[in-house]
Design a protein that fits this description.
Elements lengths: L10 E8 L2 E8 L9 H58 L19 E8 L4 E6 L16 E6 L2 E10 L2 E11 L3 H49 L15 H63 L5 H31 L12 H16 L5
Antiparallel strand pairs: 1-2, 3-4, 3-7, 5-6, 6-7
Helix pairs in contact: 1-2, 2-3, 3-4, 4-5
């Protein structure tokens, strides 16, 4: 016996010999998924593709929303930094360079919820004013080192730097640190549209899967039922309806042609069977009639022989009469056997077990053939 392969798609084969040729029958071990109905596999495949499309759409849409939110936040920070820098510059110009700090320039950042930290430094790098939305955000001010403009070290933060101008000359630097919206926060904005689009895609996918499964498996199921009826005892009920011109339609037409051939052969076989039954019935009637016709004169021969045996006969004459009697009885048995053969063909044959004398049976058979065997060298 061949060893079983670990591959789930392995196949086994066997040969059935008939006459001089051989028929190869392939037995394929199906994968577990291949054991599912075709309609289930089609619907599952389409829904899987739709699910992957929804996941891909969500990923692309989320990244696009995140990029758009980052770009929008960068633009807002640029506008906010320009306004705050202008206010800080005006405050520095009023207080003069002898003031150690500028008060109130960053108070307007309370209305910008995305800004988590900010500071204003002079040209020497000394902090003039700073703003923290949360005391724990103090370390975020370390991100302000660098040139002017927008940038971001990652970690969901965006840093914008701008020069503070006083009388057209740089007097310090403004740094704003803002928190970029997370994907979860953005989902609250576009989640409704995404869920609606996903629902529409799922609905369209389900309808398409149902329609495709019905289009493919409907004719295939009818073909299976027709072949099952033909292979069983119910027979074909008629040609199948061709609903399309694709592969299923061509297969349906081929099956219809096969059904017509099978129906024609069934009619020919039925006609041949009826003809054979009629011939057998005629033969049985003929044998029964001939048996009765032959039995009548034979009974007369046997009866006259019995009368002759009751007359005075010498030893040789009695031996001849006994031979005639035995031959007549044997011939009568053959005629009865012919009648039994006709009964056997009609299904009316009955067997009755009886005891018999084997020695007597052999003796009678020898007496029947003794007269013809005397003139032969046996």
């Amino acid at each position: 016996m061949a060893s079983r392969s670990e591959n789930p798609w392995s196949e086994r084969s066997r040969r059935a010999h008939s006459g001089s040729g051989s028929i190869r029958i392939e037995e394929v071990q199906e994968h577990r998924l291949l054991g599912l109905p075709v309609s289930t596999r089609i619907q599952g495949g389409i829904l899987l593709v739709v699910g992957l499309a929804i996941v891909l759409m969500g990923t692309v849409l989320g990244r696009w929303e995140l990029s758009a939110a980052r770009s929008d936040l960068s633009d807002r920070l640029a506008v906010l930094a320009r306004v705050v820098a202008a206010e800080a510059g005006a405050e520095m110009d009023e207080r003069g360079p002898e003031e150690e700090s500028v008060g109130g320039s960053l108070e307007s950042l309370e209305g910008a919820p995305r800004v988590v930290a900010a500071r204003i430094t002079d040209l020497g790098g000394r902090t003039v004013e700073r703003y923290l939305r949360n005391p724990l955000d103090a370390e975020r001010l370390d991100l302000c080192e660098g040139g002017s403009g927008a940038g971001g070290p990652g970690r969901g933060l965006l840093v914008h730097r701008r020069e503070v101008m006083v009388a057209g000359r740089p007097a310090g630097r403004l740094c704003l640190v803002a928190r970029v919206p997370t994907l979860g926060e953005l989902f609250l904005g576009f989640g409704g549209v995404f869920l609606l689009a996903s629902g529409v895609l799922l609905l369209v996918g389900a309808v398409m899967a149902w329609w495709l499964a019905r289009t493919v498996t409907g004719p295939a199921s009818r073909l299976t039922e027709a072949v099952t009826r033909v292979s069983g005892s119910t027979g074909a009920s008629g040609p199948l309806e061709v609903v399309s011109g694709d592969e299923i339609g061509r297969l349906t037409r081929a099956v219809n042609g096969l059904l017509r051939k099978i129906a024609s052969r069934e009619e020919d076989l039925l006609a041949a069977k009826e003809e054979a039954e009629r011939a057998s019935e005629v033969k049985s009637l003929f044998l029964a009639s001939m048996s009765h016709e032959l039995r009548t004169p034979l009974n007369g021969v046997i009866g006259v022989t019995d009368l002759l045996a009751m007359t005075p006969l010498d030893r040789e004459q009695r031996e001849y009469v006994n031979t005639i009697q035995a031959s007549g009885t044997a011939l009568l048995g053959v005629i009865n056997d012919i009648l039994d053969f006709s009964k056997m063909e009609s299904g009316r044959m009955e067997l009755h077990p009886r005891r018999f004398d084997l020695e007597e049976c052999v003796r009678k058979a020898v007496e029947v053939t003794r007269a013809t065997g005397r003139g032969k060298p046996v």
